[in-house]
C-alpha cells in the first residue's frame, strides 16, 4: 500500500509540479545576450549533434562504414 501511494505521489509531482518549476526557472534568453562560455559550449553541442546526424544517415543509407572491430565466434568476444 505504501509503495503504491509513493508511486502515485511521484507521478503527480513529475507530471504537474516539475514542469511548472522548470518553466519558472528556465527562461529563454537570446543567444546575443549569453556569455562566451555559453556560445562556445552551444557551438560544441551543435557540432556533436551534426556529427551524430551524419553518422546515423550514413548507416541508414547503407554505405559501408569503416569497422575497426569484429566479433570472434571462437572466443565469443570482440576482436580489435
General description of the model:
The chain is mainly alpha-helical. It has a domain at 35-63. It has a two-stranded antiparallel sheet with strand order 1-2. The protein has helices spanning 2-25, 36-61, and strands at residues 70-72, 77-79. It starts with a helix and ends with a strand.
Would you summarize the structure shown here?
The protein is mostly helical.
Describe the SSE topology:
Elements: H1 2-25, H2 36-61, E1 70-72, E2 77-79
Name the features:
80 residues; mainly alpha; two-stranded antiparallel sheet; 2 helices; flat
Low-pLDDT stretches are: none
Number of beta strands: 2
What general form does the structure show? Answer: flat
* Class by SSE composition: mainly alpha
Biggest pleated-sheet summary = 2 strands, antiparallel
Helix count equals 2
Strand order of the largest sheet: 1-2
Give the DSSP E fraction (strand runs of 2 or more residues). 5-15%
* Mean of all residue-level pLDDT scores: 82
Helix content: 55-70%
The ordered string of helix (H) and strand (E) elements is: HHEE
CA-to-CA gap between the ends?
52 Å
Give me the Rg, rounded.
23 Å
Amino acid at each position: 500500500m505504501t509503495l503504491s501511494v509513493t508511486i502515485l505521489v511521484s507521478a503527480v509531482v513529475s507530471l504537474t509540479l516539475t514542469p511548472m518549476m522548470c518553466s519558472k526557472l528556465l527562461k529563454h534568453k537570446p543567444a546575443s545576450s549569453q556569455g562566451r562560455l555559453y556560445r562556445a559550449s552551444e557551438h560544441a553541442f551543435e557540432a556533436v549533434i551534426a556529427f551524430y546526424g551524419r553518422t546515423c544517415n550514413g548507416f541508414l543509407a547503407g554505405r559501408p562504414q569503416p569497422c575497426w572491430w569484429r566479433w570472434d565466434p571462437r572466443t565469443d568476444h570482440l576482436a580489435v
